[in-house]
Amino acid sequence: MNSDSLEPVRIYSNVRAKPEKVFDAWLDPKSIGQWMFKPWDDKIIKIKTDGFPDTEFSFLVERAGEKINHVGTYIEVRRPHRLVFTWGVGNSPMGDSRVSIDFEPNGEDTYMTLTHRGVDAEYKNRTQEGWDKIIASLQSAMTEHK
User: Fold this and answer.
1) Edge-to-edge strands, sheet with 82-89
2) With 0-12 CB in 10 A as exposed, 13-18 as middle and 19+ as buried, what is 59?
3) Taking the mean position of all CA atoms in its chain, how far away is CA 25?
4) Model confidence at 2, in pLDDT bands (50, 70, 90)?
5) Residue 21 burial by Cβ neighbours in a 10 Å radius (0-12, 13-18, 19+)
6) Would the pTM of this model clear 0.85, i.e. be above it?
7) Residue 139 sits in which domain range?
8) 57 close to 49: Cβ distance less than 8 angstroms
9) Which of 101, 123, 135, 145 is at 20 to 30 A from 26, Cα to Cα?
10) pLDDT per residue over 22-77, tens digit each?
11) What is the rounded CA–CA span in Å between residue 137 and residue 50?
12) CB distance 43 to 61 below 8 Å
């Protein structure tokens, strides 16, 4: 089955920080290292990102003694409204998929919608659980550093 025809993974979340701060947390290497991989207690080896369209990113971590490289290319970067990028994990058979994140003001908070398209059915539950953990970690980081 073509992964493009599958229902995407979607996460809806209210984050207790302004859209600019939440948006920037997705692009700042130091910030990414503090929250994105925290749920797995990953050791950050190297985070490379500049946050410009058509540039690549690489988040190299060590998890349980294994090196894992999360890679992609920024497609759309419209601060503080929308971020779109491809997403792949090392040599995973999942291949590249596409993540879009929309940031909407909600009073002093941000209503965030993450949509991950192109996820094969066999990886959908694991992908949903992973993003749920990542978003919870982001929410915690935004609350701690408010």
Assistant:
1) 9-15, 109-117, 97-106, 82-89, 66-78, 56-63, 43-48
2) buried
3) 10
4) very low
5) middle
6) yes
7) 3-144
8) yes
9) 123
10) 999 999 999 999 999 999 999 999 999 999 999 999 999 999 999 999 999 999 99
11) 22
12) yes
**Number of helices and strands in the chain (H, E):** 3, 7
Cβ 15 vs Cβ 112: under 8 Å:
yes
φ, ψ for residue 108, nearest 5 deg: -85, -5
Judged on CB neighbours under 10 Å (0-12, 13-18, 19+), 30 is exposed
Phi/psi class of residue 64: alpha, beta or left (left: φ > 0; alpha: ψ in -120 to 50)?
left
Residue 80 identity = P
* Domain containing residue 21: CATH number: 3.30.530.20
pLDDT in tens, 112-129: 999 999 998 888 999 999
d(C-alpha 74, C-alpha 84), whole Å: 6
Residue 146 CA to residue 125 CA, distance in Å, equals 31
